[in-house]
Structure prediction request, 113 residues.
Amino acid sequence: MADCLFCRIIAGEIPSNKVYEDEKVLAFHDIDKKAPVHVLIIPKKHIESVAALEAADSETVAHIFNVARQLAEELGLKDGFRIVTNTGKSAGQSVNHMHFHLLGGREFGWPPG
Ligand code: AMP
Ligand code: ZN
Prediction:
């Protein structure tokens, strides 16, 4: 998707501060972090959002969670972390390429805003 910000990051057309990459996923630091650790984990395949997932994407989503667990450990989030996926306009999704925010390093409130 030529006009998708995260597809352009995957293609290397826009720089990112990478923390993990393999053939299926990319993880990089959020440019406007909301916690001491704020990493975005994205599939390399362009999937608009959780609402656009297909059954065939199940393995990729499971892999993303495994990467999240691994990164949480590597980044020292031993007291806990939060994984957030805003889906759609009312939930605050601003980039229409599915992404998982991995947040940690501070206390989080509940319910979320
Ligand atoms: P959301 O608002 O849930 O769709 O999340 C999109 C996230 O992408 C926000 O937290 C932004 O700060 C982040 N973001 C936008 N542009 C970039 C970029 N060029 N590099 C890294 N993160 C970005
Ligand atoms: Zn995309």
